[in-house]
Model the fold of this input.
Amino acid sequence: MKTIEQLRSSPWTAWLALLLIALIVPLVLGGYLITILTIVCIYAIACIGINLLFGYTGLLSVGHSAFLGIGAYAFGLIAIRFGLGFWPSFCASIIISGIAGFLIGIPALRLKGHYFVLVTLAFAVIINIIMMAWIELTGGAAGLAGAPRPDPIPLPWGDVIRFQSPLSMYYFILFFLVIIFVVSYRLINSLVGKTFIAIRDDENLTQSLGINTMSNKLVSFTISAIIAGIAGALFASYNTVISPDSASFMKGVEIVAYLIIGGAGTLAGPLVGPLIMIAIPEMLQMVPEIRQLLFGIILVLFIIFLPKGIAGEVSFLTSRIKSQPRNV
Amino acid sequence: MNTTSLEISNVSKYFGGLLAISEIDLTIRPGELVSIIGPNGSGKSTLFNVVTGIHRSSSGAIRFNGKDITHMKPYQVTRQGIGRTFQQTAIFRRASVLDNVIIGQLLHTRTAVWGAIFNTRSTRRKEAQTREKARQILSFVNLEDKDSQIAGNLTQEAQKRLSIAIALATEPTLLLLDEPTGGVNIREIDGLIELVEKVRKSGISICLIEHKMRMVMNISDRVIALCYGKKIAEGTPKEVASHEQVVKAYLGECNAAPGK
Amino acid sequence: MLGAYIAFYVVAFFNMSYWLSIVIAAIILGVLGLIIYRLIFYPMRNGPHANLFVAAIALLMILESAALLWFGGETKWLILPYSNDVIRFGGMSLGVQRLIIILATLMVMLGLELFIKKTTVGAALEATAQNREGAMLCGIKVTQIAAMAFAIGTALAGVAGVLIAPAVMILPSMGLGPLLVAFSAVIVGGMGSIRGAVVGAFILALVESLTSGYISATYSLVFVFAAMILMLLIRPSGLFGKEL
Done:
């Protein structure tokens, strides 16, 4: 049985406390906060995906908006055009995102450095154009309406959870955030995660150690695409309307920016980034142009002076203080 | 019983107009320790790079255990059983010493993503085995007490040991060591020489690039001398050391220079 | 984008010559380029390359929103006395402005080539691009060269903005589309080659117009990017570029 002391110093305690806060605060405070936090959670999911790809495997993709869009549109189209329910459409969209990630990854990952980033950009713009232009399929700029909410869940005492209220959708999305967080945690701490980190830190050395870096990068890319697809599908369900600007190129950039500010390559980064960068401007009710301006300035300052991001710098400092090896 | 052998036949490598290595023939027999010497720029590291697939050979063939590895990618060459270290010590500086060796073993551990996510029993077992094996390798190279240190904080000599440990983790039957004592001070060289002999005694063939003659003379079965990319001498350490062309090469002249 | 705005204000506000605005834009943007280099890219020169990309994107956000706040979001139009004039020859008609753009491009290409190939500074630029450390050993002040290259780049972008201003809508967000096409042009033509950049641009323009006419106007950009992706896969160094 763990002592209070052990519980206090274990990292799990912090995460559980955070989860409790996330569960209870919206219940108590309610209102606009729920909307903000829901959006934060969706972005956090996407950021975890990018964290796996960029923070841990070292591949910068500014084009993951493509997968947000593919996830959203696949979900919407299957649900609306084919009339399937929430869960079949959701699962199908996950599979489709994975396939798309795999197919795009194969050519894209043959390129290194700047060229890879550019290609991800190109793919994002291409997909965005298709979303706008292929009107018969996607409804063009107007998009699709009528994406379903999750099916009602019957409770043992006869009542039913309907996912119509903002609070219920918040918990639903939070649930997925927790799952994906745990998945990424497991991946990062496993041998697979160590492979990714090795590729990030020195790809040539990793290759010379007998590891097929291309297939590993592809795995990382596909997983991050799947995660982004999930975020897209969840957003579609939440919004019930799917439009091309939910998958614009700038969204892909935002995800990367939030991650960097939060701390790429850390577990907390993808959570801290969106929280700070979305919640605070919303609460201050900033005008969009000012928000973008400040966003750009903050991003530049971070990338020059604090490239490890908030969580990264904190972790760096605390390990310096304890002078212990960092778990990265 | 180590039966592996490396046969390099007539291998040349051009970089644009520059002929880095020219018509090299070299065989390394099982259990041997062959040293390659030569002035800077004579193509020694390039030869390693061509063997391990980092550079494509312009002509010639390389066979390892009878298998043609001439056009294999680096990770495939390593999987055949050829390990290597680099002149500029290549280790994962940000990771712990133990993690470095664990990464070295990754080519032999087949953990799927599924197993990683669900933390299955077989995954946990494999991870424990990998960790245990890593510790064994670290104690083989005498670094077991530093397993949790950050690799980048080690001394130069310890880093060289670590790079050898990482290469050993890939379970090679032939180890290519590129200047394992580079930048190490004289007092510490003996320790590294001992390590190399220890590796050799464990049954692994070794091909060594070295400048330090004492090391080369004492431990090599055979020595090859290169100059301007061409092989100018081959034989026992004594034979090569007294070979007229080798002496000249180290003093600055070389009859294998291009154009002569 | 900024170049276009400068042209607009020079002509409409200050009532000066359009041609003068080319010079003014080049100067203002060159200086801006130096400032940006010194403040942002110079401190980051030793970090990971990916971060530079992110910094550039951040810059894009800053400039665009600053322009939005400063100039307002309404579309502006730059009308010049000859804006509606058209030159006809051989059965085709060509807008005067477009002709000016083509001529100006050729002049810039020539000018840059001469600069790089014939002047000492140009040679220093090439040397730095090929081997930074080697250049440093030769006594070349690498940071100054880098700053200068950056400034030339921004100045040229400004001039491009001035040239295109009479032909398109002037908006803060007008920069992104041409930027992506410009990147594609450099990749197709080859990084490190002026000739390549221009050739790449012409090829892509052809791709865009042909697919626009024969296949579909809305998808024409897709083909442009597809061309870039194809080039990246077949020959990443582009048509005229240096071997990677």
In short: The first strand of chain B starts at residue 6 and ends at 15.
